[in-house]
């Protein structure tokens, strides 16, 4: 590909910005990013106040890459004030799936000679971290902690990526002219000619990078290789006294239920709680079906100023149950805000960094499956290696576009890290509130 080739990146989130920046750094002069919003995109999965940064993985490849990224977060001056070192406590109750994931993670870290320390009981965890006032994962507690972890202020990190892109000459188009609703395809040549926008314009390019996250599946056929799922999160406002009380709160994860938390966020005085589970599917509205010509699960397309302050009732119960095991004194506190975050799940939990099987100039970058953000410092390097077809074979195999799930029902077993009830469709009254 020539350095003056026209490259259009659809999506200004984690995958889109890291790819655009790396291409610009490699000398590509005509890189344009299209999105409904100027980043940070308010309803994107890579934006709000916090994301977990850890290298604890049951998969050897992701563990290695996550550790590479962690060292950048921890050591690079560019992430000062963005990354905050914080211990992570990983737990499971008697659920065999959660226990198996923890054991596999411990084994993988041992193989890589990376640190972790087991807790013999929930009491031992509370002695180490006295702010943990609840019973923790029970019955059948299994847990460990890793002090080499932390969290990143996601909005600041994405804003930093945006600024780097601008400095390197990347162009941005937002609003209706940046809202991609489909592609003009040339079936004879097997290529995409242009992206079509809500403004009625077409944006032509030599190469298209589709990095639209949970919206990608509504733009091109993904052959059941991705699924947009909604995950619940909420924020509790803390008093100045509580900010001091909980300032040493670790990140706590229960793989059996999917519940996890963050320490207090100093800029907003918020404590964030989340469920990393099987989530919710959302059927498109009739207007979205007509516009996108797609019936797959998708987040709302209409541009907004942010996520709606709403989560389904069963999602709220799961968050409050998690608080009861972690910080029961906060379990009934009103949420300052609650929202649905949209994942792009894949059947195996692996990313997709590969060319679309139908279009030789359409590269797919996504499939974050709720665990991609931690790779931000190194993600662009690997995405562009895949784009240039220079990935090492093991990574190319892991991140390939999988067509084998096209006709397979319920083909999303994941990577073993999900907990809680099975995925379900949002009801009509729930969809109306998003």
From TrEMBL:
The keyword Flavoprotein applies. Pfam families: DAO. GO terms for molecular function: flavin adenine dinucleotide binding; L-pipecolate oxidase activity; proline dehydrogenase activity; sarcosine oxidase activity. Residues 420-434 have a biased composition (Basic and acidic residues). It comes from the Eukaryota. Residues 6-384 form the FAD dependent oxidoreductase domain. InterPro entries: FAD-dep_OxRdtase, FAD/NAD-bd_sf, MTOX. Its cofactor is FAD. The keyword tRNA processing does not apply. Belongs to the MSOX/MTOX family. This is FAD dependent oxidoreductase domain-containing protein. It comes from Thyridium curvatum.
């Amino acid at each position: 590909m020539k350095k003056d080739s026209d490259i259009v990146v659809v999506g200004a989130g984690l995958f889109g910005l890291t790819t655009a920046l790396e291409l610009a750094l490699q000398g590509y002069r005509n890189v344009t990013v299209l999105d409904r919003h100027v980043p940070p995109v308010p309803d994107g999965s890579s934006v709000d106040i916090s994301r977990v940064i850890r290298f604890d993985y049951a998969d050897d490849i992701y563990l290695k890459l996550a550790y590479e990224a962690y060292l950048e977060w921890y050591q690079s001056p560019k992430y000062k004030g963005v990354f905050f070192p914080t211990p992570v406590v990983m737990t499971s109750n008697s659920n065999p799936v959660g226990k198996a994931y923890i054991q596999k993670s411990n084994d993988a870290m041992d193989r890589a000679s990376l640190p972790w320390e087991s807790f013999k009981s929930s009491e031992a965890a509370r002695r180490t971290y006295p702010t943990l006032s609840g019973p923790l994962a029970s019955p059948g507690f299994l847990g460990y902690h890793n002090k080499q972890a932390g969290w990143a202020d996601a909005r600041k990190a994405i804003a930093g990526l945006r600024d780097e892109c601008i400095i390197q000459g990347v162009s941005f188009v937002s609003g209706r002219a940046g809202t991609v609703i489909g592609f003009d395809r040339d079936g004879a040549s097997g290529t995409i000619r242009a992206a079509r926008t809500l403004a009625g314009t077409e944006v032509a390019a030599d190469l298209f990078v589709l990095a639209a996250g949970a919206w990608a599946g509504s733009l091109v056929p993904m052959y059941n290789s991705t699924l947009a799922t909604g995950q619940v999160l909420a924020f509790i406002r803390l008093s100045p006294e509580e900010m001091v009380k909980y300032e040493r709160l670790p990140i706590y994860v229960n793989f059996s239920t999917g519940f996890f938390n963050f320490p207090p966020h100093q800029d907003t005085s918020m404590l964030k709680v989340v469920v990393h589970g099987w989530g919710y599917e959302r059927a498109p509205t009739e207007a979205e079906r007509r516009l996108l010509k797609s019936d797959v699960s998708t987040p709302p397309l209409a541009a907004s100023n942010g996520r709606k302050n709403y989560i389904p009732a069963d999602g709220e119960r799961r968050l409050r149950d998690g608080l009861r095991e972690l910080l029961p004194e906060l379990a009934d506190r009103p949420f300052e805000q609650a929202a649905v975050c949209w994942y792009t799940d894949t059947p195996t939990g692996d990313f997709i960094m590969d060319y679309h099987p139908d279009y030789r100039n359409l590269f797919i970058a996504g499939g974050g499956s709720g665990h991609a953000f931690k790779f931000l410092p190194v993600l662009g390097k690997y995405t562009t290696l895949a784009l240039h077809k220079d990935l090492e074979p093991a990574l190319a195999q892991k991140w390939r576009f999988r067509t084998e799930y096209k006709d397979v029902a319920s083909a999303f077993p994941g990577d073993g890290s999900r907990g809680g009830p099975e995925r379900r469709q949002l009801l009509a009254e729930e969809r109306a509130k998003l």
